[in-house]
User: Fold this.
Amino acid sequence: MSRSEERRKARENTGGSDMTKFYIILGVVAVVGVGAVAYSVGGAALGGAAMEPVEIEGLEDMVLLAEMAQGVTKGDPDAPITIVEFGDYACPGCGGFALSVKPQVELMLVETGQAKFVFYDFPLTGIHPTSFLASRSARCAQDQDKFWEYHDAVFRNQASWRLEQSPMAHFLNFAADVGLDVDTFEACVKSDRHAELVSANMRLGYELGVNGTPAIMVQGNNKPPFLVPDNSFAGIQAAIEQILGPAEAGGAN
Amino acid sequence: MSVEAHDMGGAAAAPPMNRMVVAVLAMGGFFVALYLFAHNLGLTGPIVCGVGDCATVQASQYAKIGPIPVSLIGLLGYVVLLLLSFVGLQPNHRGSKLIGGLLLFGSLGGSLFSAYLTYLEAFVIEAWCQYCVISAILITLIFLASIPEAMRLREGSS
Assistant:
């Protein structure tokens, strides 16, 4: 028997070929694993951006919660009716509401002084991993007095970013499009600024019974706010009628 | 009794297939745990979940034991199982009862711990993180693949 045959025999006796296959499979698993983890770590590229709700002590105190939670209001602050949306920027239903129903609400109810529209953040972070970041980014736009312009741009372009793991580049483009100081905006988004505010808004939503988005509530005439079961414009009008009575609400048509 | 059963440290035994399976599964589990641990460190941005609710699970009080993230415990567990199975495949350790015992009882402990975490997801947190579920499946498979070690231990002691 030649020396090479002896070596082959020895390898077979000690399972050499099996070990070779084993090393190959183990190597493949290792390469795939390293690639997947490196992709998820590198893909984030969001610096120190706060991406998830933060814990805030004492929010079970409704007075403190009411102080910390802040919606953004459009329209006459003294309007008799308040239409509230708890919304998630990554939620397709909220995108539909923002593009089709909200413009009617603004035109027919807000601009006529009959109602004001208030938006509260309610990012569904469990199913939309970047929506908390989107909410914070809108609040960063609010810092520069361009909340509604940015809010509308984010919803208008929702399809372009909502499934991206790291939508920061899109947010910076929207910021530039609506005329924000992009450097200031970027520094804000890549920090934890407004994380407490958005978290408090989420908590307020939970306290009010919000469990999905868009959640539309109507309030007025000294009556407590209630969830509108039908998020269409007709549904909102019907809810206002319920508050004011048909005679007064007729003026809203 | 087979030749392998007597070979408790010899160099001629074929590599135990079950240890190969354990090593490959432990390598997979290592990366699942590494991903979750990287998330705990804030390195991955939002956790990526196709189904379930990882953010809820990861944000719950049960994601840590004291200051130690559960994912770190899993990570270290998989490293130990990977190293044990790897060493146990080398010619001089293929018959090692010590390694066999550590694999068997280590994976049993991991499976029980994982079962407890799965119970928490189902009945306490009421949210599912598929990475935790994948890890639970992997450690269970590792335990099943380690069962032949019990036979080797029994044969070795008889």
Remarks:
- Residues 32 and 38 of chain A are 10 Å apart (CA to CA).
- The interface with chain B takes residues 13-15, 18-19, 22, 25-26, 29-30, 32-34, 36-37, 40-41, 43-46, 48-49, 51-53, 125-127, 129-130, 132-133, 165-166 of chain A (CB under 8 Å).
- Chain A is about 55% helix and 10% strand.
